[in-house]
Write a structure and sequence with these properties.
CATH superfamily: NAD(P)-binding Rossmann-like Domain
CATH topology: Rossmann fold
Shape: globular
Number of helices: 9
Radius of gyration: 19 Å
Strand order of the largest sheet: 3-2-1-4-5-6-7
Number of strands: 7
């Protein structure tokens, strides 16, 4: 029997790269998507072309009961679960001056709670089945590097990496490993093309030590390694082309917090909210 993996958010970019890489490594795959059926079906076609089984599920993981339901459905269809990869998440950026209660709830449910609930559901099944499994959380270089307007998103990723360490201790007696993979600048080619953007810019060449953005497939390869690295638990693997080494800020052509114009715009927006 092939090993079995569930990848959340497998319809595009990093999630698709992970799902296909795991299939290449011999896994039968289950994956979730939220609205982008076309992408999920394309991922499924690629996996089935490799001779692996692939199940897809629409799941809105911000709903409190969705993570448990997804894990159990995937477990039933796959006939068990050896690896869980928590990748699905959504980002909402904003300044502390303008962030609202709704923004906080959105980011928390999409960037931390759904990961923890999926991991808990998978861990219970692995313990029950005596499966020496692996749980992998996709975090971000932003867990370490501060970026403007991502104070809460980055905090959620950092919290996930801290939670990983305790989860690894909790599950070590059952030989279940818990690790994080933290991507750097991994740009979605389809979205870039649609927006007329290119990764071949002076900023990218000059600010990332390896002089390029990463490919989704490279994150998939890192996840496949962590899934089978049986003496690795409670750690984070940075896959960022060296971005975190010099402390440079991915995604920004200038250092905006030193710009008077940038600060003035943030202040104006904050004052607009206060004056309503």
């Amino acid at each position: 029997m092939n090993p079995r993996v569930l990848v959340t958010g497998g319809s595009r970019n990093i999630g698709k790269g992970i799902a296909v890489a795991m299939a290449k490594d011999g896994y039968d795959v289950a994956l979730s998507y939220a609205g982008y059926l076309e992408g999920a079906l394309d991922t499924q076609r690629q996996i089935e072309a490799l001779g692996r089984r692939c199940f897809i599920y629409e799941a809105h993981l911000e709903d409190a009961d969705a993570p448990e339901r997804l894990v159990r459905e995937a477990y039933a269809d796959l006939g068990g679960l050896d690896v869980l990869v928590c990748n699905a998440g959504r980002e909402r950026r904003g300044s502390i001056l303008t962030f609202t209660a709704e923004d906080y709830d959105f980011q928390y449910t999409n960037s931390l709670r759904n990961y923890m609930l999926c991991a808990a559901a998978a861990a219970r099944l692995m313990v029950r089945d005596k499966t020496e499994g692996s749980i992998i959380l996709i975090t971000s270089v932003r867990a370490e590097l501060a970026h403007p307007d991502d104070f809460f998103y980055g905090a959620m990723k950092a919290a996930m990496e801290r939670a990983c360490k305790s989860m690894a201790l909790d599950l070590s007696e059952f030989n279940i490993r818990v690790n994080c993979v933290a991507p750097g600048a991994i740009w979605d080619k389809e979205r870039m093309a649609a927006n007329g953007r290119t990764a071949d810019t002076p900023f990218i060449r000059e600010s990332i030590p390896l002089h390029r953005v990463g490919e989704a497939e490279e994150i998939g390869e890192a996840v496949a390694y962590m899934a089978k690295a049986k003496y690795v638990t409670g750690t984070t693997l940075l896959v960022d082309g060296g971005l975190a080494l010099p402390g440079l800020h991915e995604g920004h052509d200038a250092i905006p917090w030193k710009s008077k114009e940038w600060a003035a715009k943030r202040l104006e927006k904050a004052l607009e909210g206060e004056n309503k």
